[in-house]
């Protein structure tokens, strides 16, 4: 049973009293910082895109408020992506289905043709088109693409069956050599990428997951232990 404190905290979270993001002040230098997630499986360093300022600033405010500390990666699909950001996952019992919760606001879609779902990108989860035709993003849930490599034939199939458009040649080359998840392009907002720690993403993606009601939740809890803004540096290729 949850303590009175936890019940109160959950109520405040969803009423917007604790995390109304506009009340978290950003300094100019914050927008030039990277984000460090220390997880139970290793460390991931993320760099946000200035091309998607609404998502960038929202994510920075969440990190500054330590919203992500102790949250679980609640949905993991190997060769696809790892997902986090459900505030109810912090104290979730084993076997509990997760993924339906986030603070009660959304972020307008910020699709950019130059941002595509190559391996390592950071993107916002969202409700499906039936209830969210504007494709607005969740306020807190995000995913990191692990993806897989594609052949030309595989990309042709994605174009015809999923995207209904051509994938630019330079993006096709990336999907063939680096890999990714092209069927998500221009449907979910990409707002950053991993600059260090893809080995941690791969480790998380390889964790055994449930096939029950909590489908795709890792059987072993994989948690963000801490999150913070850090000074940018060159991590190399």
Beta-strand content: 15-25%
| Mass-distribution shape | globular
Give the termini separation. 47 Å
Strand order of the largest sheet: 3-4-8-6-9-2-1-10
Number of helices: 5
Task: Write a short abstract of this structure.
The chain contains 5 helices and 10 strands, in the order H-E-E-H-E-E-E-E-E-E-H-H-E-H-E. The protein has 237 residues and is of the alpha+beta class.
Structure notes:
- With 237 residues, the protein is an alpha+beta fold.
- Helices cover 22% and strands 21% of the residues.
- The protein has 5 helices and 10 strands; from the N terminus they run H-E-E-H-E-E-E-E-E-E-H-H-E-H-E.
- The strands form 2 sheets. It has an 8-stranded antiparallel sheet. A two-stranded antiparallel sheet has the order 5-7.
- The radius of gyration is 18 Å and the shape is globular.
- It starts with a helix and ends in a 6-residue tail after the last strand.
- The model is unreliable at 1-19 (pLDDT under 50).
Please describe the topology of this protein.
Elements: H1 4-15, E1 33-39, E2 42-48, H2 53-64, E3 73-77, E4 81-84, E5 106-107, E6 121-124, E7 137-138, E8 142-145, H3 152-163, H4 169-177, E9 190-196, H5 198-205, E10 224-231
Antiparallel strand pairs: 1-2, 1-10, 2-9, 3-4, 4-8, 5-7, 6-8, 6-9
Features:
two-stranded antiparallel ribbon; 237 residues; alpha+beta; globular
